[in-house]
UniProtKB/TrEMBL annotation:
Organism: Ligilactobacillus murinus
Membrane topology: Multi-pass membrane protein
Protein name per UniProt: Amino acid permease
UniProt keyword Transport, yes or no: yes
Signal peptide boundaries: none
UniProt cross-references to Pfam families, sorted A to Z: AA_permease_2
Keyword Cell membrane: yes
Transmembrane spans: 12-32, 39-58, 132-150, 157-181, 205-227, 239-262, 292-313, 343-363, 369-393, 414-434, 446-466, 486-505, 511-530
Length: 537
């Protein structure tokens, strides 16, 4: 960074705007939230932009400026304000939030290939949940194997795919309005008036806010570049305002454009999985081009998602292993090959991804699996975002200790209050997001998804709390557990998970109570087994 500034090469605010934009919003984000809220999502986007996106981005700017020498990463912000352990745990939760995202990306690759090769979603009717999971896992394994040789190529393809995706999104919005004028203003959504876009702020609405937050977060990735601007105090707000304008255009007009082709009052059940392909097919048909747009979008999605998957698999594992050091991370997870690859870290990533995929196998349809994984992101990702607001509150509570070139709201008390409000909203959205989406409320599937949501969160986050204890045992005994302990604990965990999933899929009236009792018993047995001194033989 210093060398960059010495040679006078500053990042301009328009460039920073574009860098932030690609991390914040995409066409699928618009589609997912349109399915959740229909045309009322237009009002939600407006509220989110002004009450959430802008202050969130500006807080990120100050955090990046304060911790510029540490690269501006989220875990370094927490480490700098709350010490090593919370820094480690933040790194773990950030990594854990990536696990459902990686699995969801692999699912999207399968769906994208299906549309790219067949030109329709009919292949989904002939594919069971087990087959869908198997293909997802095969793609997942393939990219773990080839990422070493193709990592640089995949990063390049990510840029190409991301650029194409941005162009396709803008193209859809523009041509949709041209088509609207062409057919005399007729829309699939009828009636279309001011009441159509006003949300009903009930419990169902608030359970979908987490997906909105999931769609617009990510601007923390551009935080390290704040101090590379010539005048960050003046230019960074410009970049964030420009970001808000671009995001507003894409989300508001994009959602309206979807209402041109889809009746918001009667949306297809598989809109989250196949809606993007339906939309581009409808666009092509309106302009007499058949399925051209659909095929271009399908291959664009495949290229982008494949590249993203390969890069994520390597980057997320390396970030976790390298960022936490040897104080909290067990030695066996830090083991690397002669080429520097964290092989056991890959195995952990692969195992947890397989675990997440296994949880969804027993859902009724392939579409349910896709929707559940997507909604799981809408729970875990906003939860991790809470760390950002917490770190911001910490630096504003003692601003003299954390000087910054860029300051969001000069008054510390007002700034602290702003951070607290966003923290509370995000935390509430995270908690309410645990309630299943896209299924009939309190139905058999609803209860099953509620159980696997809780199981997923407990396993992904809880494992991060256990690893430091395992590391302490390594330091004390030379090894964390002996072979018999590992076998017993693995068997107990597998049995507990399978039993809870089976029980959650039954129609027993008090199944949730029984699951809680079983989990308490299983955890107690785990503690007893793990507490025993390992055999040194």
């Amino acid at each position: 960074m210093d060398n960059t500034q010495t040679h006078g090469k500053y990042i301009s605010w328009p460039i920073l705007t574009l860098m932030a934009f690609v991390t914040v919003i995409g066409f699928d984000d618009i589609m997912y939230n349109f399915k959740n809220q229909g045309m009322t999502v237009i009002t939600s986007w407006i509220l989110m932009l002004f009450l959430y996106v802008i202050p969130y981005s500006l807080m990120v700017g100050q955090l990046g400026s304060v911790f510029n020498k540490e690269g501006g990463g989220l875990s370094s912000w927490i480490r700098g304000t709350n010490g090593e352990f919370l820094g480690y745990f933040t790194a773990w939760t950030y990594w854990a939030a990536s696990v459902p995202y990686v699995v969801d990306s692999a699912n999207s690759v399968v769906v994208g290939f299906g549309w790219a090769f067949t030109g329709s979603g009919k292949f989904q009717d002939t594919m069971s949940n087990a087959e869908f999971t198997l293909w997802t896992f095969i793609i997942f394994i393939i990219f773990i194997i080839i990422q070493r040789r193709l990592a640089n190529s995949m990063e390049f393809l990510s840029v190409i795919g991301g650029g194409m995706m941005f162009v396709m999104t803008i193209l859809f919005v523009v041509l949709a309005f041209v088509g609207l004028a062409k057919n005399g203003g007729h829309m699939a959504t009828q009636p279309m008036n001011v009441h159509t876009i006003i949300p009903n702020f009930d419990l169902k609405y608030w359970t979908t806010v987490g997906m909105l937050i999931y769609a617009v977060n990510g601007s923390e990735l551009i935080a390290p570049y704040v101090t590379q601007m010539r005048k960050p105090q003046r230019e960074f707000p410009k970049a964030m305002i420009a970001l808000a304008v671009m995001t507003a255009f894409l989300t508001i007009f994009g959602s309206f454009a979807l209402g041109i082709y889809f009746n918001a009052y009667h949306l297809p059940n598989d809109l989250k999985m196949n809606g993007s392909y339906y939309a581009f097919r409808a666009l092509g048909e309106q302009f007499g081009l058949g399925d051209i747009f659909m095929y271009v979008y399908a291959w664009t999605s495949v290229v982008y998602m494949c590249a993203l998957l390969a890069v994520l698999l390597d980057a997320m594992t390396r970030m976790l292993i390298s960022d936490t050091g040897d104080k909290y991370m067990p030695e066996f997870l830090r083991k690397t090959t002669k080429d520097g690859l964290p092989i056991n870290g890959y195995i952990l990533t692969c195992t947890l991804c397989a675990f997440i995929m296994f949880l969804g196998v027993f859902l009724p349809e392939m579409n349910d699996v896709f929707n559940w994984l997507l909604n799981l992101n809408g729970i875990i990702s906003p939860g991790v975002t809470c760390w950002i607001f917490y770190a911001f509150m910490r630096i504003r509570k003692n601003s003299s200790k954390y000087p910054s070139k860029y300051v969001f709201i000069k008054n510390d008390k007002l700034a602290y209050l702003a951070g607290l409000l966003l923290l509370l909203v995000t935390a509430l959205a995270t908690l309410l997001g645990v309630a299943p989406q896209d299924v009939e409320q309190f139905s058999h599937t609803w209860w099953y998804e509620l159980v696997i949501n809780i199981v997923s969160i407990v396993v992904l986050i809880g494992l991060g709390a256990l690893l430091p204890s395992i590391r302490r045992r390594e330091l004390k005994y030379g090894t964390a557990f002996d072979r018999s302990q590992w076998y017993l604990m693995i068997a107990l965990v597998v049995f507990s998970v399978v039993f809870d999933i089976w029980l959650g899929g039954t129609k027993i009236a008090l199944r949730l109570v029984y699951i809680i009792i079983e989990v308490v018993i299983a955890l107690t047995l785990l503690v007893v087994i793990a507490h025993k001194k390992p055999s040194q033989s």
